[in-house]
Amino acid sequence: MADLDPIDRARKAVTDRADLPGMSLMEHLEELRKRILNSLKFLAVGFVVGWIFRVQLYDFIQKPLTDLHYSLNYTHPTDPINLYIKTALFGGAVLASPFILYQVWLFISPGMYQNEKKYVWPFMSATVTLFLAGAYFGYLILPGALKVLIGDFGKHFTPMIMVDEYTGFFLAIILGLGICFELPIVIFFLALFGIVDAKFLLRHFRYAVLAIFVIAAIICPDPSPVTMCLFASPMLALYFLGVAVAWRVHPSRRKAGAQTPA
């Protein structure tokens, strides 16, 4: 399987699972509908909790700006309530994410072998931890990015920072880095199903570096090379973590471990 490209490996992974208990198309759609509805219920509960604490969430979002002695402005009467709705939805989504991830796992688990289902709790805990770590990393570097953008590049101008634009910028940084930190989880599933392995990831490392720096350039608010490297460095570290994960969970590795006498 080492000579196969990722597409052929994916096809082989699907073929190898043909002996698993199957579901009809309607059963798959019904299961998908059930999981989506359950996820929406958890999200609704999270939104209610987020709405209760909307003022605290607003203070949390605005803090990087107020620490620099800037305030938010708005031009439309609905901007403040839209801000509260966005922050409540954002906080509710983070709060409900473990339950939503469990619904995702329940949907994909019928296509997995029994020995693969043991990864459910490591998967959920690692996914939530990595997302929160990425979001926290974004929150830590956001004040510095604002200082550069407003204090350095914008020092000859009078800033009028609008509520909706700042909120979109804040969420882009926080969510962007939170999602980027999920790279080891993506590699985990690709390796678990035998689509990639550690050798493949190391052999194509140069392309991964290029992709990581392109992503860093997109989400980086400051075009300077130093700041771009600051964004890219944790993703490079996570890529190597993904290589270690791929080596550990790849089917060939698990099969060799199963054949090793106790």
Write a compact overview of the structure shown:
The chain contains eleven helices and no strands.
Q: Biggest β-sheet: count, sense, barrel?
A: none
Envelope shape:
flat
What is the N-to-C succession of helices and strands? Answer: HHHHHHHHHHH
Judged by helices, strands and strand pairing, the structural class is mainly alpha
Query: Strand fraction band?
Result: under 5%
Would you give an account of this structure?
With 262 residues, the protein is an all-alpha fold. It has 11 helices and no strands. It has helices at 6-16, 25-52, 54-66, 79-108, 120-153, 163-180, 183-192, 198-203, 205-219, 225-249, 251-259. Helix 2 packs antiparallel against helix 4.
Give a topology summary.
Blueprint: H1 6-16, H2 25-52, H3 54-66, H4 79-108, H5 120-153, H6 163-180, H7 183-192, H8 198-203, H9 205-219, H10 225-249, H11 251-259
Can you tag this structure with a few keywords?
262 residues, mainly alpha, 11 helices, 76% helix, 0% strand
